[in-house]
Write a structure and sequence with these properties.
- It is built from 13 helices and three strands, in the order ααααααβααββααααα.
- By secondary structure, the chain is mainly α.
- The chain has a three-stranded antiparallel sheet with strand order 1-3-2.
- α3 runs parallel beside α5 and α11 packs antiparallel against α12.
- The longest helix has 22 residues.
- The radius of gyration is 22 Å and the shape is globular.
- It starts with 17 loop residues before the first helix and ends with a helix.
Amino acid sequence: TQDIPLFLEILGIKQESWEEMFATWHLSEEHHALAMKFADRAQGHPIAMRSLAVSIQNGLSEELLEQSKRGIVNNIYDTQGVKKLIQKMFDKLNNQDKDLLGLLVQINRPLTANQMKLFLDIDRKTRIALIAAGVLEKTHTEPKRYYVDPIVETLRFKPPAFQKMEQLGFRLIDESKRLRHKENDLLEELCIVQIANNILSNARKPRSCRKTVVSCIDHILTPLRRVTFRQRKYDIAEKMLISALKNAPAHPDALL
């Protein structure tokens, strides 16, 4: 039989669910009616509808909405349009919140409320504010976890300061030690260590990275690939490769 590629068609939120979608944003009756009036422009895309709700909640009038492109996408597959909407929501944040999102991008995994407080000092008030701004996602399963949309990583924004990244990396290292000695959760410990090592490497602190029993050197291989194939700085890449092989002489990716 001939191999036929499988395509999965993704549909937007159905029109009969739009009212329920906007209701989750606790809009006033007037704002809810305004959101429903302009809902067609979002094509059922949840992020586009969120952009529309946030704009209305922040006081954008009907007249200004007529003139703006808030919530507008060409279709459900319009990734560039969605990216522009997220960029607008991101640009309205203060510098402190932008740094927090930048650090969440570095962690690159959903976090519980306790973990957000432990790693980033993000309290309930800040979480609610980031969700209301449309830039923080929340799961609906228990325990609830919070994360940023992968599109945020592609936005134009200044990366966090190395000092803040280093501080985050050390907090993650401390948490990995606690997981080993107090909970004996070796799998979660390994996961946290890899995230910490990647952040410390990005903060130009490779010597602070924690060694693992298993050869986990993604924090070396990821920038190595970037320097080799994208930037083509082969002299730097050679030094990084020597470091990778020193840490893990038999690692297949490093040998390749």
